[in-house]
Amino acid sequence: MDPEIRKAFEEVQRQSQETAVKVQLTEQQIQKYSGDKRRAELTLAEVNQVPEDTRLFRAVGKCFVLETRSTVVSGLDNKVAECEKEVASLQNKRKWMEESLAQSKANVEELLRQRQEMASS
Predict the structure, then answer these.
(1) 52, 69, 88, 104: which one has the fewest Cβ atoms less than 10 Å from its Cβ?
(2) Among residues of the chain, what percentage have pLDDT more than 70?
(3) Coiled-coil stretches, from where to where (predicted)?
């Protein structure tokens, strides 16, 4: 086998392994942010059901802090928006990595095809 082709295959294989690990990590982060978003949405739904004058507490480390309902709602809304933004960013990152890997594989296939055409000429 041609050393140039062997080197290209090894490079694509290395990139493929690295990308697979990065995609898996990105998937885990997407799941984490999706879970955080879901918890914030469920908490927000429950908070919206209580009367306006209800005393609400927010967990801070090992203690709880008394807050107004509007502050709690605002914090939960911010958390939902932040999680949505992170999930969208991570999905774009995953898509880019997959496209990059596909392009690398296509380049190697093109190199092989060119070598075969040169050999048959």
Answers:
(1) 52
(2) 98
(3) 73-121
